[in-house]
């Protein structure tokens, strides 16, 4: 940081220091993203220890670079002279100051202790999940919540601790916001699902059942991302158990996914989902590529893009003929006699289940609702780890109508809490709601959404999302993106209306 | 580097600063190795620009960490109190001081520009090679040589620039040393090859010809590294045009290689070669893994290990039955009726050819000789990129008796110059000579070399090399390793004697 120290109150030197900081952060993030996301997918088993050390050191260097007191001074001085800065520079300073604030008030020892705790907890969780042993994991959950409460107090002593973390994953959102949002979702989805379950007109999945060669599923995976419009010249595709998308750079997005021989749709919708993340990463303005503005703006907005392509496009009736044709090209024997309508119904069976990652579009937000409500109770002190299994069972019974038979398919199913990620789950549901509102605005803007899906030519959809959302990277927060794209603030009604309309038709409710 | 600044003349603080520096360097090297070696193999095409920027920045950070004046002070103070340090710490300080000296005089901007230039040049070279377009690559070669001349002048203004780079790849060696070495090699190999070509008793390759399924060749590749004793739990195996071995860490060695359907031996000897590099990387004392002592001590010593397993083991008559059995397991139809003697002769046909990486053991050093002589001319200013194809053709005609039909199989065949690696090629020939001397010493020490090869159980060979060479990592230079392992200084006579004896017998010279 010699460049930073050299800058006194000379705007030109401060701007040079900003650029130097951005290059340093870019290279460290690039290394952390590539090693951290590719590593677990491709590295040999003995690579783990040294990879962990390398990642911890690179992360330490990133925090050190950002928390350098001289950086705080540079950012403050530059923030005071907005008239001398470009719009991009003003956004960089805002985002960098926020990233810095998120780190600078937490004592290094606290952060280090938290890393060690979650590293150990993830290990304990993995074993506990495999045998369904909640008691083994519970003490860790309590300790992690305590640590998160302390860290939130350090970051922002005047604020509700859960709000601190909700804001970190989705800037601008707090529990009051999510309470309203989830209340609307609950009021719509719980009775809607009950009606669907009571309907005598239920779609079936028989037409998509069978065994599907894994090698051909990987060819299909490539067809699907190509159909979505992901730039394959900037894509690496690999295999893993839990699908994810990573992005060391705008020109290098990686998707890791799975293929199960007995479930071709799992691969199909995982790929469409991850492809949506990839489109967002690839669509950020290349001018941002070496700055902190690169990448998606928040977890919720990222999830909005992935669920947009998974559900609003992928599971739409308009897209069904194109998807069927794509499936039939790789599996002519199995899809040659399926109709688009049959495929559409098979993709949209609403089935109350136990496992979030296997949930359909209608039940999905209820899985999130359960987690959100439990996180609220843990952070308000109204519940402790020991209460979680009971709460989990009660809420799954109340909202989804299912009985939880074991902790493996219950409160131990997700890795997020073991990693300390409280406040992350709600963004999953929020993303779906963002997406529904974006689709509405897109159509109001004249995009022929159904026509694009029917033609299997999504360029008009990509162009609209690219212009309104993707290109902005982190330079605008979600609330501003929604406002600018839709001409109004976020409203969950588009989402609940969409679900009501779609599932009432499929299940012939009120017919 | 707060830890470094904090250290005044307190040995304990200096040692802590040394440890902190080593952790920082470890993490940056890890990132540079992984991104730099895996990247070109697996990244999508559009990743190149940003990868280049990230690598340049990480390299800049590495240089900055090492060149920090406070680091120079710490190393000097510690070097003055050897009695308070462990043997490992003394070696760290020696190696770090040398690494620092190699960089401290090159301006950071020059180094960063060089990284960007070679990143771009490697891309241009790849395309140029595929279409044989020397003119596309030539301007890059000139620019890279100019950059290397400038950098050498900055590093050591009083020294011949080519010597500067020869010393960097093989500490202690200069052009005068290599001139003597290559003169002995040339005096032996050029007439020996001519005699072989004139012999009426020529081994044939018919028994290894045919088409070999690529998928099975990759299974064979795994068999071969397992047979060598490479730890597969610390190995990543991938595909590339130009085989290489990389090693982000002791627990993560990567080999990229190729398989040609019409040439099974190409894959076999590439794998045995790269496996030798992998054994060296994996064999370094684990106590060094987070220090600058990790990895092989020099290019020449690394090549000694790879050529040891490729040639001294892999192409020996003693190993032929085991290799044949391994081949026949994957290709029973094609190798079921071949005899070990036939295989031995087929793998040892001395065939003057165009491509270095496809060369046999006898002609190989002549390919290196051509490159060494051309590098000498480029660095003395007696030749420029435009002259290289003519020089290449003349020297291949003179030493190998072959006509060069195109640049793809001519001066564009290797990636080294595109990466700026001048002074690297000579180490390939030197490594073969080290290997021959090591084998002699090993046998004199009582290792049953032929017996180990015949049994296909190379543990005794690995144990000797592991103890004498591998475990020491960078803590000893090549000259010291050879002296300690062999009880005498390096001598090329073991190599020329070995070649003379082996090929005289195969070609029945003087019989």
UniProtKB/TrEMBL annotation, chains A, B:
Pfam families: Peptidase_M32. PROSITE patterns: PEPTIDASE_M32. The active site is at 274 (proton donor/acceptor). Its cofactor is Zn(2+). It comes from the Bacteria. GO terms for molecular function: metal ion binding; metallocarboxypeptidase activity. Binds 1 zinc ion per subunit. InterPro entries: Peptidase_M32_Taq. Broad specificity carboxypetidase that releases amino acids sequentially from the C-terminus, including neutral, aromatic, polar and basic residues. This is Metal-dependent carboxypeptidase. The lineage of its organism: Bacteria, Bacillati, Actinomycetota, Coriobacteriia, Coriobacteriales.
């Amino acid at each position: 940081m010699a460049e930073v120290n050299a800058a006194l109150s000379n705007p030109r030197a401060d701007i040079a220091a900003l650029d130097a900081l951005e290059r340093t952060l870019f290279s460290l993030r690039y290394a952390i993203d590539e090693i951290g996301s590719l590593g677990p997918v491709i590295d040999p088993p003995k690579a783990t220890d040294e990879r962990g050390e390398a990642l911890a050191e690179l992360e330490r260097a990133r925090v050190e670079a950002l928390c350098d007191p001289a950086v705080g001074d540079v950012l403050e001085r530059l923030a005071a002279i907005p008239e001398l800065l470009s719009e991009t520079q003003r956004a960089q300073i805002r985002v960098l100051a926020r990233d810095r604030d998120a780190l600078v008030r937490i004592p290094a020892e606290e952060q280090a202790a938290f890393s060690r705790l979650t590293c150990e907890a993830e290990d304990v969780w993995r074993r506990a999940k495999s045998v369904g042993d909640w008691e083994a994991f519970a003490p860790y959950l309590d300790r992690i919540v305590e640590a998160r409460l302390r860290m939130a107090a350090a970051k922002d002593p005047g604020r509700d601790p859960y709000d601190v973390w909700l804001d970190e994953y989705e800037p601008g959102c707090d529990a009051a916001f999510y309470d309203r949002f989830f209340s609307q979702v609950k009021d719509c989805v719980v009775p809607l699902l009950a009606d669907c379950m009571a309907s005598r007109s239920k779609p079936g999945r028989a037409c998509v059942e069978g065994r599907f060669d894994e090698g051909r599923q990987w060819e299909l995976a490539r067809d699907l991302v190509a159909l979505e419009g992901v730039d394959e010249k900037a894509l690496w595709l690999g295999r893993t158990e839990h699908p994810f998308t990573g992005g060391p750079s705008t020109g290098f997005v990686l998707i890791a996914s799975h293929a199960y021989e007995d479930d071709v749709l799992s691969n199909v919708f995982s790929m469409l989902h991850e492809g949506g993340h990839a489109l967002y990463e690839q669509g950020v303005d290349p001018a941002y590529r070496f700055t902190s503005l690169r990448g998606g703006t928040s977890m919720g907005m990222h999830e909005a893009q992935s669920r947009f392509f998974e559900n609003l496009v992928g599971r739409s009736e308009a897209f069904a003929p194109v998807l069927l044709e794509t499936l039939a090209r790789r599996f002519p024997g199995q899809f040659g006699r399926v109709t688009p309508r049959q495929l559409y119904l098979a993709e949209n069976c609403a089935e109350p289940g136990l496992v979030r990652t296997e949930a359909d579009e209608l039940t999905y937000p209820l899985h999130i609702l359960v987690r959100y409500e439990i996180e609220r109770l843990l952070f308000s002190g109204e519940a402790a780890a020991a209460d979680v299994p009971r709460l989990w069972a009660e809420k799954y019974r109340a909202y989804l109508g299912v009985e939880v038979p074991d902790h493996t398919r219950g409160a131990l199913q997700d890795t997020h809490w073991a990693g300390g990620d409280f406040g992350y789950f709600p963004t999953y549901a929020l993303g779906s709601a963002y997406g529904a509102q974006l689709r509405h605005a897109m159509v109001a803007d004249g995009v022929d959404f159904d026509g694009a899906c029917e033609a299997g030519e999504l360029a008009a959809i990509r162009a609209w999302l690219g212009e309104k959302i993707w290109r902005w990277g982190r330079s605008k927060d979600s609330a501003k993106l929604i406002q600018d794209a839709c001409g109004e603030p976020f409203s969950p009604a588009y989402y609940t209306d969409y679900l009501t309309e779609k599932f009432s038709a499929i299940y012939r409710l009120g017919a």
